[in-house]
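Repro:
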Amino acid sequence: MLKDKHKYVYWTKFRKDTSPLLRRFLLAASGLFVVAACLHIVPLLTHQGEVDYLFFTVDLSFAAILFLEFLLKNKVPLIIRVFSLICTTIFISVLSYMRSGLLGSAEISIAFMIVSFFVFLPPILSLISSLLVSLLPALFGGLVYFSWIQFPNSLGIRNNNPREWIFNSISLILFSVLTGFLIQRLRSKLIKNIIYLKESRSKILKSQKHIDKLAFYDSLTHLPNRHLFEKIIQNRINSGVSESFLLLINLKGLKVINALHGIGFGDQILTLTGCVLKLFTDEKPDILVASLGGDEFILWIENSSKTKIEEAIVKFDLNNNELLTPERLGHRLQYRVSGIQFPQDANHLDEIIRKLSIAMNVARDGILTKLVWFQTGMESKIEREQKLKNYLEKAINGNNFKIAYQEKVDITSKQTVGLEALARWSLPEFGDITPDEFIPIITKSELIVPFGKCIFEKVISHIPRLLESFGKQIQVSINISPIFFLYPNFNEYIIRYLLDHKIDPKILIFEITEDVFLDEIETIQEIVSELRSKGISVSLDDFGKGYSSLHYMQKIQFDELKIDKSFLDDIACSDRNFLLLESICHLADSLGLKTIAEGIENEEQLLRLKQTSCHVVQGYLYSRPQILFD
């Protein structure tokens, strides 16, 4: 394998590596021939000795030929340039031998030619050529031996001795072997170093590519990451790009998917979503898509308009893609989209990203998948949320919430059979703040557990007075957040607190929504079973608002079923809705559950409700939530 690499390096790099060196040789040799030619005509200037016109002409001719080859560069094939150098050296050497015998510079010329062979020719060919050229003095020795050539005595008697010529050839042969061995050894080491450097460079390039990929691309989706995206967009902004748009896409419920199916499945969804977005924007130079990490993707769109983008978002549906079908995922993949216009809404990249995130916060609060464009008023909404968050922390620590109670009435006896505790909060700066506003802030701020404890403990402190006012037969309902419900040691905390305050657990009903079941259902079964074993009732709140309530009713034993207001709004004018309500009531009866109808606001709804088996209602028709204490 190494030998093949040697050959590869030699034969593929030979021309490229030796051509510049050979051109330098040609230039140097041309210059030397010019100097030699000048030396031959020095007697003409000094008037001493004879002018050697023959060598002057030969040297000057060869200087011109070699310089011409130097000027032609690669237009003359390498083999021709090497051959011309060899022929020149042989010619000069033969001429020198004939003119000056062993006293001339022929031996130096041959030695120069031998070195050139080993530098410019392949190993075997260079060795054979060197040995053949080294025999040139021996050839002259043969000619002297047969007296075909005789040198004048002025050149010395050694020139007419055949042995001197043979010894000269032997010395050249030894020089060829030693020089060849040395050059080939150096060349072999050089080739090894070249191979090593080449492999090292290849590894470095691969490592660099890998590092660049890690630094500039998302490891899951292989899309550009935030760093590369911001770099590209900043370059476009600096180049004076015209009106553009940025879209932020957020996948909803990825944490839930990870909890239900594992992180690996969630990663697959992110990967497939990245593929869908890449296919959707492929071969569109005006659109750049990137991954911001986690469950967010961002797009930069040029040469478009708000109308076109809104139409594209309506048509674009991840669930219609064959990679992300609801059948494959187990449910529909929901996502939110926010957008901003550059440079009208913002002209700096940091400001663009900030305002895009603000619009996404508004989009998350929406129910439908639609595009939410940034508007100036959104910033004041975020500022309000931040202020409320700070006040909420103080309110929870200071137990500053008030409790309003709404009655549950039996429509047959018209007696109050229960109360639902509802948190209320007000501030001097903002006035009354609805739960629809402050509960989401509490949830996002991870204050839901201390808030849940605060409300629970306050309701427990009211129970003795509630029993005095409404009778000991009532039950008090408390809404429990899914996060609080799944808090470690939730049951132990509840039971211990009730025992410490001597409150009968049978008075309490915990109302939970199906959001609580998004984690492992076995854990929920254990919590509900233990609560019911201690006498605390559990109610399934907002039944029908989600899509999985029937599945949970099959798995978990509840005591009460609260029908969501959306089922009751149109029962007075819609037979279809009434039949659906009636079916829910029959279902609850068959499972041994009490049913509560919430949101009853008029007599027409009440008349229709009396035709069903549901006889406990909650709504403005009978009572509004009232703050009884504090």
